[in-house]
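Hi Y.,

Following your request, here is the sequence exactly as I used it, all 152 residues.
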Amino acid sequence: MPDTAALPLDPRAVLLDAVAADRDDAIRQCGRALLNVGAIEEPYIETMIERERSLSTYVGEEVAIPHGTVLGKDTVHHDAICVVRFPAGVDWDGNRVTVCVGIAAKGDGHVRLLSELAQILLAPDRARALRESADTAGVLRLLQPIGEDSEE
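Below is the corresponding structure, written out as tokens. Let me know if you'd prefer a different format.
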């Protein structure tokens, strides 16, 4: 499979047994995962919180996709995603979230990442498998594009 088709997910940014006090704590943990793989500078994390305050990133199927605002783009070193799973769940403004897929993108890269993630996560079986995956390899496999010939 070509590199351009794969989502930019470093295995070190997959955390399967996280615990969060609340939504903002969960978002900060996503930000720290992106920071730890060198994708962002620390100020980006606060833009992720700002984004959530203006527009929820909850997408259904117990999944949220937190990402920063336009103002945070200058603190992004390279496009990346992280997967942080909260088995006990996190209250996300009245919705239960067990998986956060954090995004950091330069330029308009977030549009492509969101589109690819939506295709994957809107398939209920794949979203359920992501919530239940027991290992990093399983998460990496699940976040590959659905069709090998997929252009979008």
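Strands lie at 9-15, 58-60, 63-64, 80-92, 95-104.

Thanks again,
Q.
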